Amino acid sequence: MRIAQAMLIVVGALALAGCPKKPQILPDTGxxxxxxxxxxxxxxxxxxxxxxxxxxxxxxxxxxxxxxxxYFDYDRAEIRAExxxxxxxxxxxxxxNGNRTVRLEGHSDERGSREYNIGLGERRAQTVRRALMxxxxxxxxxxxxxxxxxxxxxxxxxxxxYAKNRRVELIYGR
Length: 174
Hints:
- This protein has 174 residues and is of the alpha+beta class.
- The chain is built from five helices and four strands, in the order ααβαβαβαβ.
- The chain has helices at 2-18, 47-66, 84-96, 114-134, 159-165, and strands at 69-71, 101-107, 142-148, 167-173.
- A four-stranded mixed sheet has the order 1-4-2-3.
- α4 links the parallel β2 and β3.
- α2 (47-66) packs antiparallel against α3 and α3 packs across α4 (114-134).
């Protein structure tokens, strides 16, 4: 009896293994697939709608690849030459997408009083704002805020930590 059961199991397994898999066809529910990385709808809609979204996303990605943080020297609010291409990339994106806005968040390291650091963060944010506006970005697309020393990027009390905390971050919204 056991041999018969074993043979039956083997024959059944061979029969299942030999059957080709049919592709599973899912019914069309009318929903649009969502891209996992951007949360945007893909694959449906008019070509111009999808093309516009893709162009905007590509331009934003290009600007973000250039960088989104401008670092400053100690107690200074002038943009160093190495960060000019970052500002140019973001100006290009904002000029091509007039509906997009950017928030410039100014920061400073922990040295100095709280009031002084708030002022220094504001001067740094305003410097980046002026640089963007000189390249054609409208005032309506830019907001600034200074956090001073309140939101450090790196904790620590050495020059390496201070250098990472003296910055303006470019944050995009809608």
